[in-house]
Write a structure and sequence with these properties.
Layout: H1 9-39, H2 42-73, H3 75-94
Helix pairs in contact: 1-2, 2-3
Length: 98
């Protein structure tokens, strides 16, 4: 049976995987920052929390803009990726029901 997948599908999936890994790294860094803030004194913590929140918001906006641009450029790839991720998450969170 001939391969009917989109020629660039593999590279797009790899790009999405790389972005997901980057998001995981960013979230891990954010978690480390929050842990540091919690350990710091309350007076100092307020400013650091605000700075961390601003940084997280800025990064999230950048990622959202990038993802939005990719979806506009390649809607079929985005649809297939979203469906696949949704199915995977559904399997992970619901488990097997007998």
């Amino acid at each position: 049976m001939p391969d009917t997948t989109h020629p660039n599908m593999h590279s797009e999936v790899e790009n999405l995987r790389a972005e997901i890994r980057q998001l995981q790294n960013d979230l891990a860094g954010l978690a480390d920052s929050v842990r540091g803030v919690v350990r710091a004194g309350k007076a100092e913590a307020v400013g650091r929390v605000s700075d961390t929140a601003d940084k997280a918001w800025s990064e999230a906006k950048g990622m959202a803009e990038s993802l939005s641009q990719q979806i506009e450029e390649k809607p079929l790839t985005a649809l297939v990726s979203a469906f696949s991720i949704g199915m995977l998450l559904g399997l992970l969170f619901t488990g097997r029901r007998t």
